[in-house]
Records
---
Amino acid sequence: MSETAQLRVDGQRLWDSIMAIGEIGPGEQGGSCRLALTDEDCEGRNLFIRWCEEIGCSIRIDDMGNIFARRAGRSNDLAPVVAGSHLDTQPHGGKFDGIYGVLAALEALRTLHDNNVTTEAPVEAVVWTNEEGSRFAPAMIASGVYAGLFEKDYAWAITDSDGKSLGDELKRIGYMGDMTCGSNPIGALLEAHIEQGPILETENRQIGVVIGGQGQRWFDLTLKGQDSHAGSTPMPGRRDALVAAAEIISMVKLLALEYAPYGVGTVGQMSVMPNSRNTIPGEVFLTVDIRNPDDAVLAEMTQKFKVCVTDCVNELGVECDIEEIWHCPPVKFDTTCIAAVEHAAQTLGYSNQRIVSGAGHDACQVCQVAPTSMIFVPCAGGLSHNEQESAEPEDLEAGCNVLLHAMLALANS
Ligand code: GLV
Ligand code: MN
Ligand code: MN
């Protein structure tokens, strides 16, 4: 038996750290609101760095604001085994989505530190910038730049709804680092995360061994009709952009149902102009998110979606501009990393099963350039992107132990 086989993380310390970060940017109903590159995000990052420095890690920050905290190994020329996720949240976010993966990585490093364990390759905890895509769309932007999927200039220029750019906000909070994003090699990346769906809870399994992620396509739609008086404009001949939006919303739902159970479709954001109760809305902006684990089926869904939108707006005398702002194809994770996670779960005696992620994750970007896998733990009712999001401390601890032992196996192999 190896000398590290008995190592276990401190589940209480992991839980306390998650709760401590959750206090930064508290939500109104028990969750968190820490949108990317806000002052709250900055405060969360600062706390993470302080914790990493307390255990002797060295910190590097790249020019997309990704933070890498390194615990040196015996052979520091080897590419590190990296674990982590994101600290930004949705506007009504929970305390666990992303945060768990970052603090599980920290807890693994703390456990190595407490036990004076040095790995062969260095090990690192990472925080990726703007995973959620809520303030700056698309999602997973900084891991996407790391993986060469987005140009950095494009990422820096993305603006939020107030017109502030991602690059300026990175500088403002002091997280435009001096390392070139993507220049630091990753030997392997592991990301622990709550499942954000109901499968593990339903199947009564403690660990999901994640073998890949489903594909997603994001669209911005601008509908242009005509502002007109709500009282004196006859119903025939109106060019009501909001009526068109309403039809598109139900059409997206029907389209997803046609591809059940794997197809999903969501309109999550909308703005109405001029947004006055007695003016027929002349312009509407809305977002559409369509997902499927099979890229060919996702393409078919996209094609049907575009045809339906065109038919609908033509009938209503409304013009529509559809811009596809993001296509993230389905991904398959690395067999060696999957095996490391599965072996750790089995050796530790945790019930487990293989699973495909419904949500997007930084690991789904980085897997293009480095071997990658993920570890899922159940969350109550499969609920996420909701302040009520919750997970059991024992499950979080189990996932963290799997992470620790998978990291050890990869870093010492
Ligand atoms: C990330 O949270 C996603 O939208 O899947
Ligand atoms: Mn997440
Ligand atoms: Mn999320």
Note: The chain has two domains: 11-214+330-411, 215-328.
---
Amino acid sequence: MKVLLIGSGGREHALAWKLAQSPLMTEFYAAPGNPGIAEHARLVSLKVEDHEAVAAFCAQKAIDFVVVGPEAPLVAGLADRLRADGLKVFGPSAAAAQLEGSKGFTKDICARYNIPTGAYQRFNNAPKAKAYIRAQGAPIVVKADGLAAGKGVTVAMTVEEALAAVDDCFEGAFGAAGAEVVIEAYLDGEEASFFCLCDGRNALPLATAQDHKRVGEGDTGVNTGGMGAYSPAPVMTAEMIERTMKEIIEPTICGMAESGYPFSGVFFAGLMITAKGPELIEYNVRFGDPECQVLMMRLKSDLLPLLLAAAEGTLDKVTAEWSDDPALTVVMASKGYPGSYEKNTPILSLPEAGDGAKVFHAGTSLRDGELVATGGRVLNVTATGRTVGEAQSRAYALLDKVEWENGFCRRDIGWRAIERERA
Ligand code: AMP
Ligand code: GLY
């Protein structure tokens, strides 16, 4: 099978590493890819936003299957364009990708299909939004409606903070994404990520993970794209997984199909496990980054037939096997991230990773044959262990061998699970 993978982050390196192990793979391309992905696939310098160019490349190489990693091309309709040419694609249509592309859309689906989530209202002007906030009081959550690279959400502990966030949105801090604002009740509990493949009708639950969104140790400081993750998330007990499937995923599948937007791809449900049980914070329509890295380390089955089954409508015919051993990944980011940071700083050496350990490339490039850091999140140092504690020790031991002066990381990835293991 000839496969094209779209994307260039740590998530795509993990997908590439796993897909390349498939005996079904005959030719493997990635666009635009990164130096880590280049170990597994031939890189193609396509502009992913240019859907015609991607379609032309697929025709030229007789590609059979396209796996789309990030959300932006899905929301922009790349999967629709390629399907129009008869290609098989892993990833939802633009209409179904609204689940991630519009928070208001998702909230309306939740309301219509009785999916547990924080109470909310949508607003297109500041005075009404502010009046609602004053009436509700704090804590309260203010969200720009559209895609804002994970930065459009303010969890406001005071009314003043919430009012300021409304001004930010309507004054253009998030561009077009902030033209509408969703104001949502604050949910109290522990967060978890749940991943489930869907082919429009059938679901195949994958695994759970926990991300570390804040930049600072002890979950302090500003939100980032994620500073580290581990899988599985102990808070997602068998009972919570069953409830998530019944109360959240299954009604979403029905709701999307009934609304005329059947969903195929991966549901990434961001959950808050509250005193009442699982509640939906948000949907993403692609794998999490860095959650994907830990999922791929634990997946024993061949990934390619699973993604293909999601694209072909045959998820009821496949199963996924997982290692019981937890996996943990630590993100190394450029100093200054998620604010501004220096680019093209040299990464002098990366350690040899052995069995159950792997350094995934996220924001790296080659310049004159030398590896440099070009992104905010740059490397994902990943390891497995018999416990989260052991996976953590192995990951940090590996990370300490990385020679990259401009990098930093959190030293406490996995702390919640490790506290539980010690209790
Ligand atoms: P989102 O981009 O919607 O995932 O939100 C980013 C982060 O904000 C989430 O991972 C949560 O930590 C937090 N958050 C979002 N919505 C809520 C909510 N209703 N209650 C509490 N925290 C929230
Ligand atoms: N790590 C969170 C995300 O991928 O959105």
Note: The longest helix spans residues 238-258.
---
Amino acid sequence: MAPPQQVEDEAFVTLATSDTYALGSLVWGQSLRRVGTTRKLVVMITPGVSHGIRQQLGSVFDLLEVVDVLDSRDTINLGLLERPDLGVTFTKFHVWRLTQFKKCVFMDSDTMVLQNIDELFEREEFSAAPDPGWPDCFNSGVFVLQPSLQTYQNLLAFAMTVGSFDGGDQGLLNLYFKDWAYTDIQKHLPFIYNVVSQAFYSYLPALKQFGANIKVVHFIGPVKPWMHKYNTATGEVIPEPGTGHHGTFLQQWWNIFMELVQPKMDPTYLSGLAGELASLKLDASPQQPMEAVPEHERRERWERGQVDYLGEDSFQKIQERIDSTLQSGPAQAQPKPVDKSKGAVPKASRKHVRK
Ligand code: UDP
Ligand code: MN
């Protein structure tokens, strides 16, 4: 069968302002390649991304677009969110400047694609999925937009005059596209296009029922997949407690990272966490990334109980964790330490978990 036709004027776009977020971008890009996207892959980077990582980004992405950092400088509201780092997320607005494309899907670099999502290009600006924290707001980790210099200017003017109610891009975009909640259901992307971590502990029966449909996982919060520890002896991730990240999805992220990203990283050119991760040496052979299974087959397997990446075991584990959390407080919910653990992340570099 001939490979599907590539589409030149539509793109998936992400953003990285640092080498560590660039690692997320690399895994995200590989996750989209794996599911055979026919659209262009673009990463917007700021001058803070090192030369070493840029070269690697160049081998995965069709276009590296260097942009300036836009900072909300809104320390009061960001303080409310306990995420002073998020001012930088205004930099996302540069995606509206990519006018060589008719339509773009922006995705955070802490997302991972499990099934082909090219159908998102059938949606119009501004389409996004609800945020479970306040479902009349959308989550700005995945959205469909139409590049336009006019919209870009309007967003900047809006940022100066109105601002953001949470200090980040999500609080601004929800004010700017304020009709989203009430006017056009076509602009509500189904939740499966942006399944944020909270869903895993707030509605477990829904996860059991609909988990096979998930197309995009979003590792929200201050602790990102690359900050969890990884056991190089067993090839298993050791989830940090309290992040709400699903162990099976984290493992999937690390499988892609260890197989397709990490072997090409050069420790001589990288510093900080990226340098540390570049130096990881796997004692075990890496776990294979999950093969991309066609949608109908995935559903059939799910219904037969043959669940590959959200298996019965992992449900049991979550359930056990939830039970033990309820019985004895969050401290008890820690996974058992693994003896041969070679954690990649020094304690000092881990951010605190948002309560
Ligand atoms: N981002 C970045 N550098 C930063 C913070 C954020 O490049 O220091 C980009 C990155 O693409 C990230 C997105 O902005 O995925 C949104 O931030 P984040 O995912 O950390 O927010 P959350 O989803 O946790 O609210
Ligand atoms: Mn995110």
Note: Residues 312-328 form the longest helix (17 residues).
---
Amino acid sequence: MATRRKFIIETIAATTAAAASIHPSGRKLSKGLMSFEKTFNDSKTVNKPVVISTWDFGIKANVKAWEVLSSNGRALDAVEKGVSVIEADPSITTVGYGGFPDRDGFVTLDASIMDEYGNAGAVAFLQHIMHPASVARMVMEKTPHVMIVGDGALQFALANGFKKMNLLTKTAKDAWKKWLKENHYEPVIDRNNHDTIGMLALDNNGNLSGTCTTSGLAFKYHGRVADSAIIGAGLFVDNEVGAATSTGLGESVIKISGSHLVVEKMREGKSPKEACEIAIKRIAEKQKDYRTFQVAFIAINKQGEVGAYAIQKGFQYALYQNGENKLFDSDYLVKT
Ligand code: GLY
């Protein structure tokens, strides 16, 4: 069936589009777009819905996202609801409520979101609000802007019905006090201290969305913002191609515009895993100290194929597809 469909699509595309530079849908195509369309017309059956997210806590987040996707909901709603479970969980010390504070003891949050129309929203250096990804969505949907930061983001959230709260739990405060004693007020970059949740979904209508939300590097400089809030770095969605998101050392991801790079590689025809691997290898080429930190990307394409790649061993991603929610070990670069 898939082969027959592929043959028919290719035949129509070859006879009409090639003759008149017109896509079978009637759209006029540029040369670049024609090769893009060929890539996707060549593909197999679309496997949807699907949701993929970072780390083992992604399993719990996927369950919530799947509730939306399996009832024909929108990918955007699925990812927002999915990550909200992790943002609200005080036992997770890298996202939302319970996140470790900066070196001055303030919990400051970054988040971004993109929908199937290419709309984008983000907040950075946001304090006192448990659900930064939802605030990012509101920035996207209710303002002419893409990003609002700091006190402006807080005021915007409060004006739109979000509740102000203390996000610093006792566990996080104790950890900060211990860190202050041991680390002389200097942030420590290592392989284990950035467990952002990034989530990407493809819904039953074939639309993609994504979000990324974090409390950032534990005990960072006050005011530090990293990849999770930066569209193109921690998150990128192009509904014609695919979506990608990252976790790990955000500064490293920003320097290569990581998630945008992954999506552009998928546009060129790479599989999601190949595209993630290219981005990780770009980091290794450009950043000599790459062995000292962790970065990982996850990606999904328009066909519902997914992939991941990390610098170091240990990165896991959660995938809910075909009714099954499973945790996978990612492939990685540093093998020796
Ligand atoms: N990737 C999250 C951060 O570095 O803050």
Note: The pocket of glycine is lined by residues 194, 196, 214, 216-217, 226-228, 247-250 (CB under 6 Å).
